[in-house]
Design goal:
The complex is a heterodimer of chains A (about 600) and B (about 290). The radius of gyration of chain A is 24 Å and the shape is globular. In chain A, the strands form 3 sheets. Chain A has a 5-stranded mixed sheet with strand order 10-9-13-11-12, with helices on both faces. In chain A, helix 7 packs across helix 8 and helix 12 crosses helix 14. Chain A is an alpha/beta fold and about 600 residues long. Chain B is α+β, with helices and mostly antiparallel strands and about 290 residues long. A 5-stranded mixed sheet of chain B has the order 2-1-5-3-4, with helices on both faces. Chain B starts with 11 loop residues before the first strand and ends in a 9-residue tail after the last helix. Chain B contains 7 helices and 12 strands. Chain B is about 20% helix and about 20% strand. Classes of the chains: A alpha/beta (about 600), B alpha+beta (about 290). Chains A and B meet through helix 4, helix 5, helix 20, helix 21 and helix 22 of A and helix 2 and strand 7 of B. Bound molecules: flavin mononucleotide, iron/sulfur cluster (3 copies) and FE2/S2 (inorganic) cluster (2 copies). Flavin mononucleotide binds next to strand 8 and helix 23 of chain A.
Chain lengths: ~600, ~290
């Protein structure tokens, strides 16, 4: 390939941001100044495999520029492309895919204000209007209305990001106009976020397993983690050997917590037995399902647990490299996980010879850049590889051809963290928790109209009513959304639904990622449904027609009937059903297939528009 | 005459289509099998010279044991598969896909679509007069070809043809996402500022006429495009020694566009700027 780069030049700052990541360019072919042309330039060629291998640095490169300057100019993009041998048209396609990047000039500070379900119920529209009135044009802050920021327990939420060296961030939640404006105008002096344990109403309770260390250990201290039982699971894993670990995980009955409930042991076994190498481990920490924030709380409150769990999983499947794909809007989690990975590596718990066992494994953290679809397994691979975050069509499945076309296990954060108790207590003991088909305990993210929103840990089998009682759901409950935006609504008279994978399925709904959003009668249902439709329209990758156009047509229909009921709405509801059916049947990935679930359940179960 | 190499013989595998037993060579797609069995499955994004992108979803069929419908163009046939091509469920999805497409882009120059719309009783108008459409002006920024993305169904064929599947120029890609996704060159600039080498291979594969020769675009705009009076002559390009086949489309004794036979083992339908656009000297009667 013969790449063409335009004439636009990066500014010194943009060049510095890119060079800080990749080192100075080796040759003028890579964008070094001509007057620095060295003799080697005359015989300089780099292409083929080596150049292709650098493509995966595109997303970190885009982040580097965006972090430093706040947006990605033509010159910066072209320079990045020279350094990585990526065609500029493709890099432009990637840069424009992500919500956190801008290819148009914008102020250095962006204030992301959540307008999603829990925040809307907590008055996000008023907050936005107030912030905009206070900041006004020329304030040097760009205010963006965004989908769920994963801070729903503290709704309404806002996140300020100020570009610079280093980039500064500040979270305001629960946000007031004053606090959000302060976060945007002086991120360094904004008050600190409350510790993650404040999101765990049961903290300190004896029944906790997955959350037992949150608020108990110092999340920055590896010694403290070890003093609280850290690294006993990995020692047990080394004693059992890879096949033994897989056997334990299989026998434990662990099902994936990322939404699809796939048996983890089977996935590991299928990958471990692939003859093709290398194998990869990917931890899905993208968590962008509206109403879901459990993975954030785990990573912020007990980061070493995830490092240990990833090491166990990698050992079991024979992987030596793992990627932690972490949501870009989680600055504190990124920071804590990076710190934990670095400390662990220093202490020989990551690297070439872990615990002197001759086993090598290391973790690289990749930051997402604002795209719900990148949580989909194969879209996540594409995103890491430096392509647009578009799902691939399956088969082939990830266990056979995943990241970089190699056998890959992708697991959710919560799934992986379960592996620690499985190994420390043993599969039989673990399997006695929960029900026969849903073993272990589950994290639920409760938000909305409840007194104590937060992450709850309950053994599978507890009912929705029991969970809501813990969280203090009050009188006047109108509806509960189970499983996030891709889940379904249930009525207040259905609170005896058991919170298990099989129980929710039998009740015609889904557990999804474990999000539980309660809404009382003050929340206007049609507006809520409109917000869900808007979310999917915004987050569709655009690859396939049923989803790309279908989500738009559904949103239009919901707009038309927002204040209508009965016969006036019947035509559009029929239209919604027809389009929804084709989306479920013919979309490439789970986004399009589930985009209509919540609205359909609101019509069928709640009688919305009747 | 073009010669298609046969390749090494492949094992036959057995499966059923619409209740009838079918045997297809290993590696065939469900679509290959359907076509061999004389079943009509509509396709839009499938390209005979490209790896299937399966983005349009108009070719979906039912496969027993599969929760969702399956794109016939890309799913490989497997032994024992039970395929149903014409069920109510598959027809429903095809109908909706056609409605969604026809309501959002201009399909007037997409062959066969009008017939499918009739066959599947698709009613693109039922989304109401305010249904969002692309509504883009044609991009006319060079003398050779026009990009009319108002007709683009985002099938990715042009991107694949320009990229690693054929041309390796990578001048275009998909930018943006969702309904706002568009085919674009870097920085959404003009084609003349891009890496494009005007091979026209993207025009060759475009199924909708979103990419077209400037000559064709102008004739259409003037209402003078008339395919029924055109002749097609396949000949050999005279520029270099490779020997690419050119098909000259002639209307009123003027070459109006140049394509290349897809089954030609040398070009697979691809040409360079000279073969594709360098025909003016032939009709320069000055
Ligand atoms: C649109 C979409 C978004 C998803 N987002 C996430 C996510 O944010 N986090 C996650 O763990 N899984 C997400 N998933 C599920 C993953 O594709 C995958 O099933 C999961 O990470 C597998 O891990 P598990 O087996 O541990 O559940 C998403 C799926 C779809 C279709
Ligand atoms: S269903 Fe939606 S998100 Fe998934 S591939 Fe299709 S367009 Fe993209
Ligand atoms: S004419 Fe050739 S180089 Fe230009 S965009 Fe089309 S395929 Fe790419
Ligand atoms: S321009 Fe043509 S080939 Fe390219 S994506 Fe659009 S319809 Fe397909
Ligand atoms: S942070 Fe606003 S809804 Fe989740
Ligand atoms: S032709 Fe099969 S999906 Fe488009």
């Amino acid at each position: 390939m013969d790449l063409h780069f335009g004439d636009s030049k990066p500014t010194d700052e943009e060049r510095a941001a890119v060079d800080a990541l990749f080192g100075p360019p080796e040759s003028s072919w890579e964008g070094a100044a001509r007057d620095e042309m060295r003799a080697a330039d005359l015989r300089w060629a780099r292409g083929g495999r080596e150049a292709r291998d650098r493509r995966e640095l595109l997303l970190p490169g885009l982040h580097a520029v965006n972090d430093r300057v706040g947006w990605i100019s033509e010159g910066a993009l072209d320079y990045l492309c020279r350094r990585l041998t990526v065609p500029p048209a493709e890099a432009y396609g990637v840069a424009t895919f992500y919500a956190m990047f801008s290819v148009k000039p914008r102020p250095a500070t962006v204030l992301h204000v959540c307008t999603d379900l829990a925040c809307t119920a907590a008055g996000a529209s008023r907050l936005c209007a107030g912030i905009e009135a206070r900041l006004g044009p020329g304030s040097g802050v760009s205010v963006e209305r965004d989908p769920c920021l994963g801070l729903c327990e503290r709704a309404p939420a806002a996140l300020a990001i100020r570009a610079g060296d280093p980039v500064r961030t500040a979270v305001s939640a629960p946000a007031t106009v004053e606090a959000a404006v302060l976060a945007a105008s002086a991120p360094d002096s904004a008050p600190e976020e409350p510790p993650p344990v404040t999101a765990v109403p049961q903290a300190g309770g004896p029944s906790l397993t997955l959350l037992s260390r949150v608020g108990v250990v110092d999340p920055s201290s590896l010694d403290d983690y070890r003093a609280h039982g850290g690294y006993t699971a990995l020692r047990r894993a080394f004693a059992l050997g890879p096949a033994g670990v897989i056997r334990e995980v299989t026998d434990s009955g662990l099902l994936g917590r990322g939404g699809a409930a796939f048996p983890t042991g089977r996935k590991w076994q299928a990958t471990a037995s692939q003859p093709d190498h290398p194998h990869y481990l990917v931890c899905n920490a993208d968590e962008s399902e509206p109403g879901t924030f459990k993975d954030r709380v785990l990573m912020e409150g007990d980061p070493y647990a995830l490092v240990e769990a990833m090491t166990v999983a990698a050992y079991a499947i024979g992987a030596h490299k793992g990627y932690l794909y972490l949501r870009g809007e989680y600055p504190r989690a990124v920071h804590r996980m990076q710190y934990a990975v670095d400390r662990t590596r220093e202490r020989g718990l990551l690297g070439d010879d872990i615990l002197g066992q001759g086993y090598a494994f290391d973790i690289e953290i990749r930051r997402g850049a604002g795209a719900y679809i990148c949580g989909e397994e194969t879209a996540l691979f594409n995103s890491i590889e430096g392509h647009r975050g578009e799902p691939r069509s399956k088969p082939p499945f990830a266990v056979e051809k995943g990241l970089f076309g190699k056998p890959t296990v992708e697991n959710n954060v919560e799934t992986l963290v379960n592996v620690l108790p499985i190994l420390t207590m043993g599969a039989p003991a673990y399997a006695t928790i929960g029900t026969a088909r849903s073993t272990g305990s589950k994290l639920f993210c409760v938000s909305g109209s409840v007194a104590l929103p937060g992450v709850y840990e309950l053994p599978f089998g507890a009912t929705l009513g029991e969970l809501l009682a813990l969280a203090g759901a009050g009188e006047g409950l109108r509806a509960v959304l189970l499983g996030g935006a891709a889940g379904g609504f249930v009525r207040p008279d259905e609170l005896d639904i058991p919170l298990t994978f099989e129980g929710t399925r039998e009740a015609g709904t889904t557990l999804g990622s474990g999000a539980v959003m309660a809404f009382d009668a003050t929340v206007p249902l049609p507006r809520l449904l409109l917000r869900i439709a808007e979310f999917f329209r915004d987050e569709s990758c655009g690859q396939c027609v049923p989803c790309r156009v279908g989500t738009v047509r559904q949103e239009e229909a919901l707009h038309r009937i927002v204040e209508r009921t009965g016969a006036d709405a019947a035509g559009d509801i029929a239209l919604l059903r027809e389009v929804g059916r084709a989306m479920r049947d013919a979309s490439i990935c789970g986004l399009g297939q589930t985009a209509w679930n919540a609205v359909e359940s609101a019509i069928d179960r709640l009688g919305a528009y009747e | 005459m073009t010669v298609t190499p046969l390749g090494i013989p492949r094992r036959l595998l057995e499966f059923t289509i619409d209740g009838e037993a079918a045997g297809v060579p290993e590696g065939s797609t469900i679509l290959d099998a359907c076509r061999a069995a004389g079943k009509d499955v509509p396709t839009l994004c499938q390209g005979d010279t490209l790896r299937p992108k399966n983005a349009c979803r108009v070719c979906v069929v039912e496969v027993e044991g599969s929760r969702a419908l399956v794109p016939a163009c890309s799913r490989k046939a497997e032994p024992g598969m039970v395929v149903k091509t014409d069920t109510e469920r598959a027809r429903h999805s095809r109908k909706i896909v056609l409605e969604l497409l026809a309501s959002s882009v201009d399909l007037s120059t997409t062959p066969l679509v009008a017939e499918w719309i009739k066959e599947y009783e698709a009613k693109p108008d039922r989304f109401g007069p305010d249904a969002a459409r692309l509504n883009e002006e044609p991009k006319i920024d060079n003398d050779l070809y026009v990009r009319d993305y108002d007709k683009c169904i985002l099938c990715y064929k042009c991107v694949d043809a320009c990229g690693d599947q054929w041309q390796n120029t990578f001048a275009i890609s998909v930018a943006g996402r969702g309904f706002d996704a568009r085919i674009a060159v870097e920085h959404d600039a003009a084609l003349t500022d891009s890496a494009c080498v005007y091979c026209g291979n993207c025009i060759e594969v475009c199924p909708t006429g979103a990419l077209s020769f400037k000559s064709e675009f102008d004739l259409r705009a003037a209402g003078n495009w008339d395919e029924s009076t055109q002749t097609r002559t396949t000949t050999v390009c005279a520029y270099c020694g490779v020997g690419c086949n050119l098909t000259l489309h002639v209307q009123d004794n003027e070459i109006v566009k140049v394509t290349s036979p897809h089954d030609n083992p040398v070009t697979h339908g691809n040409l360079c700027i000279k073969g594709r656009f360098g025909y003016q000297h032939v009709q320069n009667r000055g």
